[in-house]
Amino acid sequence: MSSAGHAVDQQRKSTTMKAHFVLVPMMAQGHMIPMTGMARLLAEHGAQVSFVTTPVNAARMAGFVTAVEAAGLAVQLVKLPFPATEFGLPDGCENLDMIQSRDLSRNFMEACGALREPLTARLRQLCPPPSCIISDMVQWWTGEIARELGIPRLTFDGFCTFASLARYIIFRDKLLDNVADEEIVTFSGFPMLLELPKARCPGSLCVPGMEQIRDKMYEEELQSDGNVMNSFQELETLYIESFEQITGKKVWTIGPMCLCDRDSNMMAARGNKASVDEAKCLQWLDSKKPGSVIFVSFGSLASTAPQQLVELGLGLEASKEPFIWVIKAGNKFPEVEEWLADGFEERVKDRGMIIRGWAPQVMILWHQAIGGFMTHCGWNSTIEGICAGVPMITWPHFAEQFLNEKFVVNLLKIGLEIGVKGVAQWGSEHKEVRVTRNAVETAVSTLMNDGEAAQEMRMRAKDLGVKARRALEEGGSSYDNISLLIQEMGNKQNASG
Ligand code: UDP
């Protein structure tokens, strides 16, 4: 940087030193992880950050805390006791991945809402006072706190802008009301023809009593001062513009958040402690040819039926390609364990690694041996795949994952659909097989081979990976947006005294 540029940068940092962001995530891995990234990025650009969490979640964030302390960043945790038992949840049930049935999701949301008063009291004590709240869309009650404190609130839904816009239209036009699950929903005003069966739309999961919470979220989003996205301008320009036009809200694309974890230790410590020895995992990957391994992982919440896991394993075996397959702790079925031990692991031992529990996903995705990613299309996983520059096989389960599939396959053209039948709603067990072993074998073979279509996808994915990294480099679109966001919130605070 030139000395003049350096001076401007320093001046900008000093004028924005006072900007103090309070981040209130939804307590679920897919929402907390990107917000820890957001905290780092804001702090690296000179802002102060208070990250609101609860004791159990704070314990999971040990790696993050160590990293921000080591980097000397102005990030502090604001820990609030979580009233689980008062709302009919087991003691210590502080994350969505800990609730035993989706029927308890309403209790969980209400317990979150009970943090309103204690959080307001804590925020009043913070010094310097907060200048802005960035909170998850589901933590709608933080809008009330922001008004009480006289500061802006920006919402974060953890989606890409493409899916956020679709979600917005669903709420606005009440597209899911009085519609049967299989009925096709059309999104009017969306920049492309978008049609999906109701059961594949975000918001279709509505346990009794959640409707009011959903309406509150929407009302508060309408009142918010803008939306922060884990995305970057070059990825979805049209949808960012459309979102701003249709909602009248400013969009701040400041991602990809996962790029804040720059070395393999930081990548490995994301979200939770890995259940595999990272060094061994890297050693295994080092022994494989570049681009030869398919990584299979379905995020933190999706549940896969035992028969489906067996079918998936048989498909991977039949493909003859090297693979890493993550079977999450919540999907540890005795019958699957028995089947794995009864010959499968032995048959694939030279080319297959199974991780049971939490995988160091980003660390794995960034390894040069990874040539493809079979994903459930959670947005974090999707953008992590984009950053790593790997093409994907899309296997959506629920929520906005079917929209992300469309985005990846039809618009970005860096993935192929596995062809999921039906919808596996979060938390509701399905016994049937939705994807056959043949479909798995065909998709893996097609993606990992040298055919023209696969090569083109690979090239496009690599190109997007480069663009993603550029967005967060100095002068990149997200880098500049972060600086502008800090400046704007700092100025607002100065103007109000
Ligand atoms: N993740 C991980 N290891 C795992 C499972 C998930 O690191 O074994 C991370 C993954 O990298 C991503 C997040 O957890 O950052 C999952 O978020 P996503 O939006 O993909 O899916 P969700 O879990 O919300 O369905």
From TrEMBL:
Organism field: Oryza sativa subsp. japonica (Rice)
Cleaved signal peptide residues: none
Protein family: Belongs to the UDP-glycosyltransferase family.
EC annotation from Swiss-Prot or TrEMBL: 2.4.1.-
A single GO molecular function term of this UniProt record: UDP-glucosyltransferase activity
Domain Glycosyltransferase N-terminal: 21-257
Keyword annotations: Glycosyltransferase, Transferase
InterPro entries: Glyco_transf_N, UDP_glucos_trans, UDP_glycos_trans_CS
Lineage, highest ranks first: Eukaryota, Viridiplantae, Streptophyta, Embryophyta, Tracheophyta
Name of the featured protein: Glycosyltransferase
Membrane-spanning segments: none
